[in-house]
Task: structure prediction
Amino acid sequence: MANFDVVGKPCRRVDAYDKVTGKARYVGDIKRKGVLYGSILHSPIAHGIMTGIDTSKAKALEGVVSVVTYEDVPNIPYTSCGHPYPFDTPLDTLILEKHVRYVGDPIAAVAAVTPEIAEKAVSLITFTYDELPAVFTIEDAMKEGAPEIHEGTKNILGENEYEYGDVEKAFSEAAYVFEDVIETPIVTHCQIETHISLAEVDQATGRVFLHATTQVPTIMRERIAYALGRKMRDVRVIKENVGGGFGGKQEPVYEIINCLLAIKTNQPVLLDISREECLAMTRCRHASKVYLRTALDKDYKFTARVITAYNNNGAYSSHGHNVMYNIASEFRALYPTPSMHFIGKSIYTNLLIAGAMRGYGIPQETFVMESHIDNIARALHIDPYELRQRNIYHPGGPFYGEDITVGSCGLQEMMEKGRKAIGWDDFQNTTSADGKIKRGIGMACCSYLQCCYPFNTEWSSARVQVHEDGSASLYYGCTEIGQGTDTIMPQIAAEALGVPFEWVHSVLPVDTDISPFDPGAYASRQTYVSGYAVKKAALACKEDILVFAAKKLEKEKDSLDVKKGYLVSKDTGEQICPLEDITRKMYYNTRNTQSICHEVYHCPTDNALTFGTVFAIVSVDTATGKVTVEKLLTYLDSGVVINPITSAGQLYGGAVMSMGYGLMEQVLINPKTGQVYNDNLLDYKIPTMADYPNVEGHFVETDEPSSAYGNKSMGEPPNLAPAAAIRNAVVNATGVTMNRLPLTPERVWEFLHPDDKEDTNV
Result:
């Protein structure tokens, strides 16, 4: 691989100082004269029609400026999905609802002079409704005669199917056939900063300005304009610092309501929802139920797979069936199988809305497939590592993914290194003296795409302006949400320009009036797509510099280069002059003055795969069901690592987030009413520092030819395989199949004692 000057170096995060010292500005820090405070009234029932609403007491409360209900909003159905135009999910949502479909559906909103008055006013609104039957599970929603949540859908939001090879023949000739049913739960994002926005109306133009904590400012602008019946030019979105998103901020949730309040009051409105609202009434990860049937030959090679997958999508489409499409693509990628039949369905239920969450369906797919493989290995009495080696993708072997070229793959190296480092071959299951504590070892593999090509609009643009002294301003629309984008993009630009990292300054915040077009932070796409646009813009500027320098110095352009802020001889590396000597002359030359500025877009024509492998050692207290992760060893092939510091943060953070998915996280819901039980961070369990296991993270670097500098996706892949590796280690320790997450002490104990009462939570 190439030797870079800036790429691959541990450049300090450009936002580190401001965030550590508290200087960084978030939406909640913005002060406006005359600001009002918003509050939302949510439906207390899971399904029903509002027959009347009385806001008179709320409006009479001193300090209340405006009350809006479902009677006051445009009747424009829209989709909140955070994907670019054209819409790829059903237009099934209104700003405020009369037909409520889950506990939490917004039906009214208030703007008042204090947060306390706004909340009091909401409590004074009374309403009547006709309650309708509700369905909360996939099975109930699909029953014949089930109440339709959206008319004419039969509660099927979307479905897809593909088949290749000769599945029927493969099963008839199989040496072995195995079946499984595996389930994953509803979980939620738990980002530090809840959904918050500041909306205001420009008095001179009537435009709506929104300061938002969002992953998708461009799409946010489009959805706001559409839902309000306005043009995109009437809306401006400024993305402030984001206190975590994990996919939960990849769409407008309550921002459109806030814009409506600002329009009605003609004053700035701050809408800052509570933690309880955020957990129970925003977005979550889909619960899934997957049926698998796999055929193997006598050499334990997969010959056919049949997979039927169901996602519980909740009450509205949000990202809809797109998550299932992503699941469908990955099921065929990591374990190439000659014959395969996939059926996927996304189901409406009267639950909180499922949308985008880190991994976009692939944490579910990875857990399901990796658990299924271990179940097969146990039944065949074969090493799970060996079973994977016989079936996993090998470079140069067959591959059945559409529109994907595997240009780089470090799977074999990761698996072999992890096997040795964890002591796979030497591991012995051990039991405590009293027989209660048992130890186990497990592994899991994963793969993940780079972007949305060719399934959705996929392109980004960037603008680079080189100044007189050789420094540069960098403009882009891709969004920093904690993952390090605002550090990575200047690194790429500096490498392409041939200047020190410190010479490149990003122009922030991202602002839809100023920043070049970019769909936003999702699909782990930004370094792969936006980074390439940055490189191309920087190289275009460098080309101008070299053309000018060659003419000025009477040399061949191809004999020159820029390195570390100097014009140099390409062949010898000898410094000719400081870059500033050239760039200053370009700006201040009476005959040939020119600006050095280019805006360039990049549209990928490929979609590579990131690969990962995780190993885990656990101990299980069979008396209590408590699982302790003794060691988590995680490897990732993300191509060339642009910044080791930011990348390590992703690798370790993703591993622990996935551990939470495997062992403790679940949104618990009353199976009779649809109300969330654990809508707070005391009762909704996520890992804390006290739970942090012994984690080791390693990168196996490959060189991906379709990216800017050999890089591949980094944000979501670390979050995919650890939960499955932990589950497989627990099964290895206990000898009991566990096909449902999370593996809480209660659930593990129930798996070990199957005669006891089953979990009754949705």
